[in-house]
Every structure is written in structure tokens, then in C-alpha cells.
Write a structure and sequence with these properties.
By secondary structure, the chain is an alpha/beta fold. It contains nine helices and eight strands. Helices cover 37% and strands 12% of the residues. Strand 6, helix 6 and strand 7 form a beta-alpha-beta unit.
Length: 278
């Protein structure tokens, strides 16, 4: 390896016949098919990605086990962010059982799909948050801007919870970013909170372009800095609006002004450290 390890901190694979991807419907035609590690391999190699983290795309334990089975066979996959039913009576025990597989790096409830914006603050979730911390796992926060005030409360309530915000909290690119930026700034002031430079092409309301992405990428760099920001492709969801290679190129160019050490952090070292990749 003639460069610092490059990590894609956020990608998916899925198999439609598994039948538990409720959000993935035929009207999302470009991604309504199977996507495998073999499909991803050419893009990972083209971008020089050494390792990747697989992230859940279905709210089922079965999908998490499916992802772990893939990670066990594929050397490039260094971790899985899975899902558990956090409200189940034995959720903490279930998580402990899952975490016996060292490839499980964290969990992600699909907060953006839950009708209640304050669901994450339900008191009966506290034992699971405690288990996440005790087991050395991480929490991927799949939130949109309206969730950020509640996320701030969650962080305040569980200050030792290792949190990464997926997709920059999904800013409405092409519309007013004022509320998103103001609320994200409050969260970013908490020094242990991380963020993913991912999923942004999908949030473009108009033409997808480097210039449309620039103010958001600049804001994320300013708010989190390279030591708390990590590149993710969000492949294959990103292919709704771009290719893996196109997003990779834009991400590289939009961070082109940074030092080599800062680039190494965003494109590998931050994710490597946050997810405890070995």
C-alpha cells in the first residue's frame, strides 16, 4: 500500500429476494436490483479504496446477519453497522450476542423513517445506548435536519456514546441551508461527535454538480474538521444521482485545498480510528 489506508465508511449491498427492504421499491428503478460486493469491487479498486464498512439497509436482524456473513468472506470489508430492535425487551442481550462477532462495529436505527422525531429519546432505549457504550460499539445517526435538536439532547443524555452523523444530516442542497447549518453547528461543538461526508449527491434538489455540493462540503469541513469527518460513497444509493467515480472525484476536488495529512484523515484515518478497524 503506497498511500495511507483509504476507507469507504458507508456502503451497502442487498439482495431483493431477501424481502425486507421496505423503502426499496420499483419506482427507484436504477437501484431496484441486487448489488453485491463483486459489483462494488471495480469502483473500490478504481478509487484505491482499501477497506469499506457495510451499513444496514433493512430494519431486520436477518439483514445484519446477512451483512456479517459477507464481511466474514470479504477481506475488504472491515466492519458492519447493523440493526436491532432497540425496543425489544431483551435488546441489550441481543446486541451483546451480535457483538460477539468482532466485525459488528455499530448499529443504526432508521431514524429518518420513524414518524416520531423524538423517538431516539424514548426512556426505554437507555439500556441499549448503555450496551452500545459498554460493548465498545458505535451509533450511526441516520437523521435529517429536523432531528438535530433531539440528537443534541441524546448526546447530552449519553455523553460517552460514540456517534457519527450519516450523510451530513441530509441538508436540502439547492434550498436554504440556514436552519441545517445552525442546528448542525450546535451538535458539531461537541468534540467527540463525528460526521460522514456521504450521501450528499442524493440530497441535491436541482442539478447535481460540484458547485452545488461546494457550500455543504465547505460547511462540514469547517464544522467538524478532517479529524471528525469521514468519506463514504453511500453506494449504490449514490447512483440515483451520480456514479461512485463521479462522487469520489468531486469529494477529492472539493477537499483539494487541504494538506495531505488532512486528506488522509477524511479519506481513511478518521473512519479507521472511529470504527476501530484492525
Amino acid at each position: 500500500m503506497n498511500h495511507a489506508p483509504r476507507v469507504d465508511s458507508h456502503m451497502h449491498v442487498w439482495k431483493l429476494s431477501r424481502g425486507d427492504y421496505g423503502w426499496l421499491t420499483p419506482d427507484l428503478a436504477p437501484i431496484y436490483r441486487d448489488f453485491t460486493i463483486d459489483d462494488a469491487r471495480p469502483f473500490l479498486e478504481q478509487a484505491g479504496i482499501d477497506y469499506a464498512i457495510l451499513v444496514q439497509a433493512a430494519p431486520t436482524l436477518e439483514e445484519t446477519l446477512y451483512l456479517l456473513s459477507i464481511a466474514e468472506r470479504e477481506p475488504k470489508i472491515k466492519g458492519v453497522v447493523g440493526w436491532i430492535d432497540m425496543l425489544a425487551p431483551r435488546a441489550a442481550d441481543e446486541l451483546e450476542h451480535l457483538a460477539s462477532n468482532r466485525l459488528l462495529k455499530g448499529i443504526r436505527p432508521m431514524l429518518q423513517d420513524i414518524p416520531e422525531d423524538d423517538w431516539m429519546l424514548r426512556p426505554e432505549l437507555s439500556p441499549v445506548y448503555r450496551a452500545i457504550v459498554d460493548l465498545g460499539l458505535r451509533f450511526d445517526a441516520l437523521v435529517v435536519p429536523r432531528h438535530l435538536p433531539n440528537l443534541l439532547r441524546l448526546i447530552d443524555r449519553h455523553p460517552d456514546l460514540k456517534i457519527v452523523i450519516d450523510h451530513g444530516a441530509k441538508p436540502p442542497i439547492g434550498e436554504s441551508l440556514d436552519i441545517w447549518r445552525k442546528d448542525l453547528e450546535r451538535v458539531a461543538k461537541i468534540p467527540h461527535v463525528h460526521c460522514k461526508l456521504s450521501g450528499l449527491v442524493t440530497e441535491c434538489r436541482g442539478q447535481v454538480s460540484q458547485s452545488a455540493l461546494q457550500p455543504v462540503v465547505n460547511a462540514l469541513l469547517h464544522l467538524f474538521g478532517p479529524s471528525r469527518l469521514m468519506f463514504g460513497s453511500d453506494w449504490p444509493v449514490c447512483t440515483l444521482h451520480s456514479t461512485y467515480g463521479q462522487w469520489w472525484q468531486w469529494a477529492r476536488e472539493l477537499t483539494g485545498h487541504m494538506t495531505q495529512a488532512e486528506k488522509d484523515a477524511v479519506f481513511g484515518a478518521t473512519a479507521h480510528r472511529f470504527y476501530g478497524i484492525t
